[in-house]
């Protein structure tokens, strides 16, 4: 008989899942949306919450239906696609983006406001990044429950601090919400939609989701149907927490301009807002908490990417991969937070549409009976425009590409892949039915049933 868990334990599981996504890096984007969108902030945040929060739950559920790992899910398209997509995903999660971003955010919020000599800031960043990432490697060296226990302590402390920060900003506002900046005067919802990519939580769900699924299987819930129900309940708790977090961060950003002016990035917005609200003690408090959450994020990501590459290249050990990826992380971190965000932006504009398309396809699998051609055709349609969006974001032929492909609906807003993905889906479905391809149905328990159509 399957075990039914009390609400208190379900709530605790939801908090654990929330802790997996709560990190120093994903709280810096909503404040910038708040500052730049101004009075349009809530429209922008509507789009932001779809890609930055709502799709997280769908991604994890899709993972359970798609085989439990990102490799199996992406393998429905093609084995080669699965390898390329997974490698790009894990590298972005590790040394290319998340680890440098997290380390830079910790420096930006916890260290930079305390530096009086701005001319030496690059040396401070170098010393800090080497020390911080060395600590990450040390904590990642052996698999223990230290980080799990630390996360259970950090999450409520971080949550309480943010609640105090937000309540203070509501009862003693830093200023009025300003008019939107130029880039938020039009297409506000779609701008927020693409900004949600940068939290990277949907992509992280593909990596962390399988770990969570395995962890709840040890709680005595044996029925796959009950496991799915438990996972959804915990996911709802997580989503509520993430929505509250991001809306709070957007409010702080939107109301901060009068007190701190316009800042270059969300880390500076958060740090200067804490100082404006609480004085110097605000810098120390938020710096300490961001430091701890940054460590847990870095350890989780460095361990995940190293374990993955040990699986695909077993001749290189896990510990050697730790050292390799930590070295790359230090290099990328020292370009600075703004440069890290700019360098990773094209990669995210490529990966996010592909990830969203995979989620949609796995949920609609039974409608097209899981025919592989539909997976391939849809991903080609999405991928072509996603590549063009990545090129535009990298500053390669932006005007020429807009002129050449501007006829595609939403192309200039970075969402033209939706149109071409639907076209690819329709064409490939017609071809698959014409060729009488084998079908693959996913039953209620998430199990795949293959047969010849």
Automatic annotation (TrEMBL):
<dbReference type="GO" id="GO:0005304">
    <property type="term" value="F:L-valine transmembrane transporter activity"/>
</dbReference>
<keyword id="KW-0472">Membrane</keyword>
<dbReference type="GO" id="GO:0015818">
    <property type="term" value="P:isoleucine transport"/>
</dbReference>
<feature type="transmembrane region" description="Helical">
    <location>
        <begin position="375"/>
        <end position="394"/>
    </location>
</feature>
<feature type="transmembrane region" description="Helical">
    <location>
        <begin position="414"/>
        <end position="432"/>
    </location>
</feature>
<feature type="transmembrane region" description="Helical">
    <location>
        <begin position="7"/>
        <end position="29"/>
    </location>
</feature>
<dbReference type="Pfam" id="PF05525">
    <property type="entry name" value="Branch_AA_trans"/>
</dbReference>
<dbReference type="GO" id="GO:0015820">
    <property type="term" value="P:L-leucine transport"/>
</dbReference>
<feature type="transmembrane region" description="Helical">
    <location>
        <begin position="120"/>
        <end position="141"/>
    </location>
</feature>
<feature type="transmembrane region" description="Helical">
    <location>
        <begin position="197"/>
        <end position="219"/>
    </location>
</feature>
<keyword id="KW-1133">Transmembrane helix</keyword>
<feature type="transmembrane region" description="Helical">
    <location>
        <begin position="281"/>
        <end position="309"/>
    </location>
</feature>
<comment type="function">
    <text>Component of the transport system for branched-chain amino acids.</text>
</comment>
<feature type="transmembrane region" description="Helical">
    <location>
        <begin position="321"/>
        <end position="341"/>
    </location>
</feature>
<feature type="transmembrane region" description="Helical">
    <location>
        <begin position="41"/>
        <end position="61"/>
    </location>
</feature>
<feature type="transmembrane region" description="Helical">
    <location>
        <begin position="81"/>
        <end position="100"/>
    </location>
</feature>
<dbReference type="InterPro" id="IPR004685">
    <property type="entry name" value="Brnchd-chn_aa_trnsp_Livcs"/>
</dbReference>
<feature type="transmembrane region" description="Helical">
    <location>
        <begin position="231"/>
        <end position="252"/>
    </location>
</feature>
<keyword id="KW-1003">Cell membrane</keyword>
<keyword id="KW-0812">Transmembrane</keyword>
<keyword id="KW-0029">Amino-acid transport</keyword>
<feature type="transmembrane region" description="Helical">
    <location>
        <begin position="153"/>
        <end position="177"/>
    </location>
</feature>
<dbReference type="GO" id="GO:0005886">
    <property type="term" value="C:plasma membrane"/>
</dbReference>
<dbReference type="GO" id="GO:0015190">
    <property type="term" value="F:L-leucine transmembrane transporter activity"/>
</dbReference>
<keyword id="KW-0813">Transport</keyword>
<feature type="transmembrane region" description="Helical">
    <location>
        <begin position="347"/>
        <end position="368"/>
    </location>
</feature>
<comment type="similarity">
    <text>Belongs to the branched chain amino acid transporter family.</text>
</comment>
<protein>
    <recommendedName>
        <fullName>Branched-chain amino acid transport system carrier protein</fullName>
    </recommendedName>
</protein>
<dbReference type="GO" id="GO:0015188">
    <property type="term" value="F:L-isoleucine transmembrane transporter activity"/>
</dbReference>
């Amino acid at each position: 008989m399957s075990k039914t868990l009390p609400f208190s334990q379900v709530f605790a599981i939801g908090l654990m899942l929330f802790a997996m996504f709560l990190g120093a890096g994903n709280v810096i984007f909503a404040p910038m949306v708040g500052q730049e969108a101004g009075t349009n902030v809530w429209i922008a945040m509507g789009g932001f919450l779809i890609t930055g929060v709502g799709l997280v739950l769908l991604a994890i559920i899709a993972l359970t239906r798609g085989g439990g790992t990102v490799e199996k899910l992406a393998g429905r398209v093609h084995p080669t696609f699965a390898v390329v997509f997974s490698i790009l995903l894990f590298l972005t999660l590790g040394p290319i983006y998340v680890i440098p971003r997290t380390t830079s955010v910790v420096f930006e919020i916890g260290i930079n406001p305390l530096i009086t000599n701005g001319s030496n800031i690059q040396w401070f960043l170098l010393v800090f990044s080497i020390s911080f990432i060395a600590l990450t490697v040390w904590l990642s060296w052996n698999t223990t429950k230290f980080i799990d226990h630390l996360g259970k302590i950090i999450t409520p402390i971080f949550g309480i601090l943010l609640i105090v920060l937000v309540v203070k900003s509501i009862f003693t506002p830093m200023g009025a919400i300003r008019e939107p900046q130029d880039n938020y005067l039009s297409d506000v919802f779609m701008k927020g939609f693409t900004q949600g990519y940068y939290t990277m939580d949907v992509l992280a769900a593909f990596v962390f989701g399988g770990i969570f699924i395995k962890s709840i299987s040890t709680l005595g819930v044996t029925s796959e149907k009950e496991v799915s129900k438990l996972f959804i309940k915990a996911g709802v708790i997580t989503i509520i927490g993430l929505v509250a977090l991001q809306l709070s961060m957007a409010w702080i950003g939107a109301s901060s301009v009068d007190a701190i002016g316009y800042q270059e990035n969300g880390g500076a917005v958060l740090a200067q807002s804490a100082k404006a609200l609480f004085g110097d003690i605000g810098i120390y408090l938020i710096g300490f908490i961001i430091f701890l959450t940054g460590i847990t994020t870095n350890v989780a990501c460095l361990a995940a990417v190293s374990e993955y590459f040990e699986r695909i290249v077993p001749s290189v050990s896990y510990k050697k991969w730790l050292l390799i990826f930590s070295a790359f992380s230090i290099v990328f971190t020292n370009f600075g937070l703004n440069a890290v965000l700019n360098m990773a932006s094209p990669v995210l504009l490529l990966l996010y549409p592909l990830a969203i398309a995979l989620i949609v396809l796995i949920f609609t699998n039974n409608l097209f009976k899981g025919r592989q051609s539909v997976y391939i055709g849809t991903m080609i349609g999405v991928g072509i425009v996603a590549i063009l969006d990545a090129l535009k974001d990298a500053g390669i032929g932006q005007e020429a590409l807009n002129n050449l492909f501007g006829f595609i609906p939403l192309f200039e807003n970075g969402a033209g892949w939706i149109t071409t993905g639907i076209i690819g889906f329709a064409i490939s479905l017609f071809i698959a039915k014409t060729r009488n391809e084998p079908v693959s149905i996913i039953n209620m328990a998430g199990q795949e049933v293959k047969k010849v159509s």
